[in-house]
Amino acid sequence: MSLQEESETPEIESGETELEALLDDLIVDTDDHENAPAFVIRPDTVQETLGRLKNEAGYDHLSLVTAEEYPDRYESIYHLKKFDDPTDEVSIVVPTDSENPVSESAEPVFRTADWHEREAYDLVGIEYDDHPDLRRILLPETWQGHPMGLDYDQDRPQMVPLRENANPLQDDHRSDADSDTMFVNIGPHHPATHGVLHLETTLDGEQVVDVEPDIGYLHRNEEQMAQNGTYRHQIMPYPDRWDYISAGLLNEWAYARAAEDLADIEVPEYAQIIRTMGAELCRIAAHMLAVGTFALDIYGDFTAIFMYAIRDREKAQNILEDLTGQRLMFNYFRLGGVVWDLPEPREEFFEKVRTFVNEIPDALEEYHDLITSNEILQMRTVGTGILPEEVAKNYGATGPVARGSGIDYDIRRDDPYGYYDELDWEVPVEDGCDNFSRLLVRMREVEESAKIIEQCVDLLEDWPEDERNIQANVPRTLRPDDDKEIYRTVEGAKGELGVYIRADGTEKPARFKIRSPCFSNLQTLPEMSNGEYIPDMIAALGSLDIVLGEVDR
Amino acid sequence: MSSERELFRTDDSQVLTETRDARMSGQGDRFNSKLREAFGSSPFILTKFDKFMNWVRGSSMFMLQFGIACCSIEMMHTYAVKHDLDRFHAGVPRASPRQADVMIVPGTIVSKFAPRMKRVYDQMPEPKFVVGMGSCTISGGPFQEGYNVIKGAEEVIPVDIHVPGCPPRPEALVYGVAKLQERIANGEAAPVTVKPYELEQFGDLERDEIVDELASEIDEEDLVMRYNWADSP
């Protein structure tokens, strides 16, 4: 959309008119996103608008904040949803002028806006008034320029200091000498941080006074890479590398769903079933690793549970390798379908999948014996890392983290895509709000995924041979219309994984923004661990099941 | 079972005799292993100490537990069941760089992480070896054109073995490690590489535009890494 042009008035539905009445004095203009009505507001009324939408209209989930630069202005878009009904969406567009891009922060209304706005400041360069801590989040503090801005020169030299890495033993008192607290760097190279996460921890004795995640050690400009690629083929390999714990197909689906809705591509039913089956195999593999590494974090079990988990992952990976040709980076989805049909001989493949799925209940029993009914693990996880429901919603937590806090929210069921709404399965929810609940949710989800896979295999087996259509008819070059904007989400292994695309009439997206579930989930860590013991903090971090490729993108 | 017979009592004189007999008859084998036979009559091996040390180094490598990105998942699979790197005398991941001999660099290195990776490498004791795993450590891989990605691990630390792939399969990594062992056993040194990015004190840098801009933010004594993106391959 653009301020100068007259934008099309979206179709008036009953809900929209209510919203318009609610925000009557705040709306400057309306816009038309493919997924939701969009209202343009002035940059000094952000808190007022979002506050009204949250408290009076029930839009309690700030899913994503997208920032982008146009030749004549900057824009922040707040994508709002309801936890009760994620199909009920609204976008709030906040344009700011390009000379002095200052906008009001949404942080007092939604806590999750804190990191999202820091990222917008870091990569695009919009400044947020009233923000508690507006610093760079992904790039080093001393970085010059904002790389997702229009006039960024990538060839400029940059300088990165090593000082945050100061040896904690040499310089262990952060504040004045009579303070009792001690400052410890955990990471970025540490076995318990699941990758290159850096936790700046302040300790008082053995208790955590303050923990601040410092991210960006794996910020490999996924958004820029997607913006450099063409829709049809060049973007699809990258989603595999966002959440790289074997969740490739789930991520590919996030891009496929957004791009297919953007270009009005209808995916054949047969391909949808293959997609559904593949995605759930990925979910099992991803959750297996989550469970294995969680046990590793809790009681250093590198021998039994971790190895069992890897063993079961190998089985899933073997099937995925038969299906896609790759163990980890599948690149199997295409816009409008999948790249090839099931491997021949089909019976053998189905037999393999069935064997795997049939073994899952027994395998889970074994895991329950080893993990959830283990007293040591129970002592460490039951009642630790408490994340109350309201706090989780405020931080935009999704996936197993939200479902472990009693939030019944799953995109697969609430905003159906693929073949999920035709199948019989359940969404596991636990209301313990602690580390143990999040573990239980993951393990029960594996069971549900197995159910889904079994039903998919039944369907695929009986599918008539002449109707096996794996690919819709898609133009060789896709050029979605200018100024078409869309935000679509899917249920990834870690939660709500979303993609925002703005087309500009060319074969490449003008803006590609990834909503990473881990990014929002990780924000809850201080909430769960401040005031607790260090081991509980490590357990809480393990139960969040973050993957840094997705946090940093 | 007859009731007169006493339970749980064996004839111990018999047991002793059997044990002794078994030992005596097996004595020759116990002290004359196949290996010993291969050496001939002399129980001594004559070799150069250097050669012996190289053989030991290659046959007992302690890896650094170092996960960066996607490749670390395949690296975990290489350590774990099925592929089991331990079979090749190289499967003990150490969490501390001070106990490690070999660093597998499994993933993309970005500007913020390179100085830290350099620090971890510096903390490893000599002799140390590096296996670069995956395309990102060779050239930046699929992210090479990004604004934030170092174009290969060799820009920061010397690399002995490159394993290509995105990600390489566990078998490929095992092959890479085996090749490294071969090189170590043959006493081959790592190639001398020019590393463009080094940690330097900020005060020692030549004054130019970017140094002037950052002068207020960085102390003279702070270590910095300066990236000249335009010169990168």
Automatic annotation (TrEMBL), chain A:
Domain NADH-quinone oxidoreductase subunit D: 303-553
Topology term for the membrane: Peripheral membrane protein
Major subcellular location class: membrane
Spans annotated as Disordered: 1-22
Catalytic activity field: a quinone + NADH + 5 H(+)(in) = a quinol + NAD(+) + 4 H(+)(out)
The EC number(s) this enzyme carries: 1.6.5.11
Keyword Oxidoreductase: yes
Domain NADH:ubiquinone oxidoreductase 30kDa subunit as annotated: residue spans: 40-156
Gene3D superfamilies named among the record's database cross-references: Cytochrome-c3 Hydrogenase, chain B (1.10.645.10), NADH:ubiquinone oxidoreductase, 30kDa subunit (3.30.460.80)
InterPro entries: NADH_Q_OxRdtase_suD, NADH_quin_OxRdtase_su_C/D-like, NADH_UbQ_OxRdtase_30kDa_su, NADH_UbQ_OxRdtase_CS, NDH1_su_D/H, NiFe-Hase_large
GO cellular component, one term: plasma membrane
GO MF term list: NAD binding; NADH dehydrogenase (ubiquinone) activity; oxidoreductase activity, acting on NAD(P)H; quinone binding
Keywords of the record: Cell membrane, Membrane, Multifunctional enzyme, NAD, Oxidoreductase, Transport
Subcellular localization, as worded in the UniProt entry: Cell membrane
Domain of life according to the entry: Archaea
Keyword Transit peptide among record annotations: no
Known partners and oligomeric status: NDH-1 is composed of 13 different subunits. Subunits NuoB, CD, E, F, and G constitute the peripheral sector of the complex.
Family from the record: In the C-terminal section; belongs to the complex I 49 kDa subunit family.
Protein name, as recorded: NADH-quinone oxidoreductase subunit C/D
Gene that produces this protein: nuoCD_1
From TrEMBL, chain B:
EC identifiers of the protein: 1.12.7.2
Single Gene Ontology BP annotation: electron transport coupled proton transport
GO CC annotations, alphabetized: respiratory chain complex I
Keyword Aminoacyl-tRNA synthetase applies: no
NADH:ubiquinone oxidoreductase-like 20kDa subunit domain segment(s): 70-180
Alphabetically ordered keywords of this record: 4Fe-4S, Electron transport, Iron, Iron-sulfur, Metal-binding, NAD, Oxidoreductase, Transport
Superkingdom per UniProt: Archaea
Keyword DNA repair listed: no
UniProt-recorded Gene Ontology molecular function terms: 4 iron, 4 sulfur cluster binding; ferredoxin hydrogenase activity; metal ion binding; NADH dehydrogenase (ubiquinone) activity; quinone binding
Cofactor (UniProt): [4Fe-4S] cluster
Enzyme category, top tier: oxidoreductase
InterPro entries with a match to the protein in the record: NADH_UbQ_OxRdtase-like_20kDa, NADH_UQ_OxRdtase_20Kd_su
PANTHER family registered for this protein in UniProt: NADH DEHYDROGENASE, NADH DEHYDROGENASE [UBIQUINONE] IRON-SULFUR PROTEIN 7, MITOCHONDRIAL
NCBIfam families according to UniProt: nuoB_fam (TIGR01957), PRK06411.1 (NF005012)
Similarity comment: family membership: Belongs to the complex I 20 kDa subunit family.
Name of the protein in question: Putative membrane-bound hydrogenase subunit mbhJ
Organism for this UniProt entry: Halolamina pelagica
Gene name linked to the record: mbhJ
